[in-house]
Specification:
Number of strands: 33
Number of helices: 4
Helix content: under 10%
Shape: globular
Largest sheet: 24 strands, antiparallel
């Protein structure tokens, strides 16, 4: 659902939601495996999975397991990364085990129990730094979640659900730093997260309208998030906190189909309105109410117009709030902010009093499916999202800029109260770190620069998504399909009203202004052959005085599947596959670096894998 959806889903659903719906009814056993490698070296990938399921008269169950491993890509294997240490990782070695169980069982004529259980374990190894100062990052991530649900068909087409979820994530990081000629230092710890939720909701018809029954969905629930963080350097505990946050919420949504095609009204083939509201209470932090409106209007059967408007929010993460912050006492003369014994207090890090980020979004679009060309569909939508109170550390780089640029004036307290200074110092992770050479005197502090995480930034994102699809039946179970999709994006961020807006989209390490993908596929009983073209638009590197243009890039992917043994439905009994990604082996453009560890290309938009060739085998038993 590509629009603001906090009215339905709560925090984080600012620009859209993807729902993953697991298969409920699966019978049989399916296995598959794939092996492949990058032709320039590195990224040797192995993957295998198995899924088995069964059904009975009152329910069913499915189990699935997936394993994947890939080797690393080092800088020495790519000529455009020669500025890095040859052993440095451009792509980490990774290993993953994942398992899934889903089941459903009727407990009576109207009551059904279902449950999803997921588990995964991932490890990786990344080498960084230089030959004289090397880092080895070796995190281990374990996740587990279980989501049970009871569904009651209450009669009159009403259903009531009682559902819950428990999730646990253990990200255990382990970093070894080995300076040349010295003993290694190990830094390790855990980002340990837990989430628990419970909800009850009901959906059903309210009353009849000309286009069908008006429907209502209502519900409420409780959510609790917890985070335990530790950081151990050598054998010394450097930082730790264990915090939690809970919220209670209620929501309602109504769908009103005023007109449908069966009504036969000239100029209105379909007209419907949806409206939703969610209220969420975060004790001690905020009360948030988020509405959403959606409209669908089809003047004729071939054309459908859509629009939506919504308010959304994103709660700050527990890490943004509770990671320790530092308090530094600095000589004011160093920044031209004072003389003699006058000082500046500077803070940087987490901030427990953060509030939710807020957003307003609206979308408008259309879908055209001409009856004269029944296999063709064209759709496009415009979106506009305006964030406020984004959480950022407002001053990037040296704080000297805050005193020389008047745009930062609002971020400096030139007459800080002694009580506020004392409170900040007492809450700092290491207390006051005094770099003035004089005893601390609150009366001598002429400026407070609070550069902790703050709700200050404004971000504006707008763009267009468009797609074209065409399908042609060639007869004898043969078909030809073509798809073309593209996105245009414009985004910028403003730290405060006095500072200019900084471009995000179209600049280095941010999404390009334009991205597109086209495909064509031929399918018969035995063969499925596909070709894809992926286009990444130009970028601008504005990090230095002279901007540099990063040229656009287009890559081609090919896929071929041959069915040796026919299966049931769309699934082949035995199939062989060949995949070639980035056929021409296009490489990232080299960018300017400022140090020996800077990645010499845009790693956000370009992959170091290059041409990748893989063979696969799948069997439905």
């Amino acid at each position: 659902m590509p629009d603001g959806a906090s009215a339905l889903y709560g925090s984080d659903a600012v620009a859209g939601v993807v729902n993953v719906i697991l298969r409920r009814n699966y019978s049989g056993l399916a296995t598959s495996a794939q092996i492949g490698a990058a032709t320039n070296g590195g990224y040797f990938r192995q993957q295998a999975d198995v899924a088995g399921g069964t059904q009975w008269s009152s329910g069913g169950a499915m189990l699935a397991y997936d394993y994947a491993h890939n080797s690393a890509i080092s800088a020495g294997q790519r000529n455009y990364a020669s500025s890095l240490d040859a052993r440095a990782s451009l792509y980490p070695e990774q290993r993953r085990h994942a398992a899934l169980m889903t089941l459903h069982q009727d407990l009576g004529e109207r009551l059904t129990f279902s449950m999803d259980v997921l588990y995964s374990r991932r490890t990786s190894r990344t080498i960084g730094g230089t030959a004289s100062s090397r880092y080895l990052f070796a995190p281990r991530v374990t996740t587990f979640s279980i989501a049970p649900e009871l569904r009651l068909e209450a009669g009159g087409d009403w259903s009531i659900k009682l559902l819950g979820a428990f999730g646990r994530d253990r990200t255990r990081y382990h970093t070894t730093f080995t300076p040349s000629g010295s003993m290694p230092t190990v830094t390790q710890g855990c980002y340990c997260n837990d989430a628990t939720s419970a909800e009850v909701n009901a959906t059903g018809p309210l009353f009849a309208l000309a286009g069908g029954p008006a429907r209502l969905a209502i519900g409420g629930g409780y959510r609790d998030n917890g985070m335990s963080f530790t950081r151990v350097v050598g054998a010394t505990l450097a930082q730790a906190f264990d915090v939690s946050r809970h919220s209670v919420y209620g929501f309602g949504e109504v769908f009103l189909p005023f007109v449908s095609s069966e009504n036969g009204i000239a100029g209105i083939n379909r007209l419907s309105l949806s409206a939703a509201m969610r209220y969420e209470d975060y004790p001690g932090m905020a009360h948030v109410a988020t509405p959403r409106l959606g409209l669908i209007y089809a003047p004729v059967r071939d054309v459908t117009l859509k629009a939506s408007w919504a308010r959304s929010f994103k709660a700050p993460t527990l890490y943004q709030q509770y990671v320790g912050y530092q308090a530094y006492l600095l000589p004011a003369a160093a920044f031209g902010a004072g003389t003699g014994a006058q000082t500046v207090l500077y803070t940087s890090g987490g901030n427990p009093v953060l509030k939710p980020e807020r957003a307003r979004s609206w979308t408008a679009g259309f879908v055209i499916s001409p009856a004269a060309l029944p296999n063709l569909t064209f759709e496009a939508s415009y979106f506009d999202i305006r964030y406020r109170d984004r959480v950022v550390q407002p001053i990037a780089g040296s704080i000297a800029a805050a005193f020389t640029d008047p745009a930062y004036a609002s971020l400096i307290d030139r007459d800080p109260a002694a009580g506020r200074l004392s409170q900040l110092i007492e809450g700092a992770q290491l207390g006051l770190q005094n770099f003035t050479g004089r005893p601390y005197d609150p009366a001598a502090v002429v400026a407070l620069v609070d550069n902790r995480n703050l709700n200050v930034a404004i971000q504006h994102i707008k763009g267009v998504d468009a797609s074209f699809s065409w399908h042609k039946d060639l007869g004898s179970d043969r078909s030809l399909t073509a798809n073309l999709a593209g996105s245009w994006l414009d985004s910028g961020q403003q730290v405060n009203a006095a500072l200019p807006e900084a471009d995000l989209a179209g600049t280095l390490f941010n999404p390009p202004k334009f991205r597109g993908r086209g495909s064509v596929a031929y399918q018969s009983r035995e063969v499925l052959a596909s070709a894809y073209v992926n286009y990444t638009g130009a970028l601008a590197d504005r990090r230095f005085a002279t901007p540099v243009r990063i040229a656009p890039q287009a890559t081609v992917d090919l896929a071929l599947r041959y069915t040796a043994i026919a299966g049931a439905g769309d699934e082949p009994g035995l199939a062989l596959s060949l995949v070639v990604n980035n056929v021409a082996n296009k490489k990232p453009q080299i960018i300017r670096t400022t140090g020996p560890t800077d990645t010499p290309y845009d790693s956000t938009n370009y992959s170091p894998i290059g041409r990748f060739v893989a063979l696969g085998l799948s069997r439905r038993w």
